[in-house]
Amino acid sequence: MPQKAAHVHISGRVQGIGFRWQTRLRAKELKIEGWIRNNPDGTVEAFIQGNEEAIIHMIQWFKDGPPGAKVEALDLSWQKPNPKIKGFNIF
Length: 91
Prior knowledge:
Elements: E1 3-13, H1 19-30, E2 33-38, E3 44-51, H2 52-64, E4 70-79, E5 88-90
Parallel strand pairs: 2-5
Antiparallel strand pairs: 1-3, 1-4, 2-3
């Protein structure tokens, strides 16, 4: 499978409910590399890369998020994979 990457901004009730930690667990299951962080404006931002099927599954998961989340919007831009990124980090 070809490698894909996406930069995602998620808004709604997405901070303070374990969104980043649940994303990290999901990324490990899907063998996705990248990172996720909270932004000062209350959004969550992520960069994910992996095989196309895994990235599509993660994007679908982002639309609902973990229990307790209320995702109101998801902005996505496709990117080139970054070979320097290894594993999945929470910032």
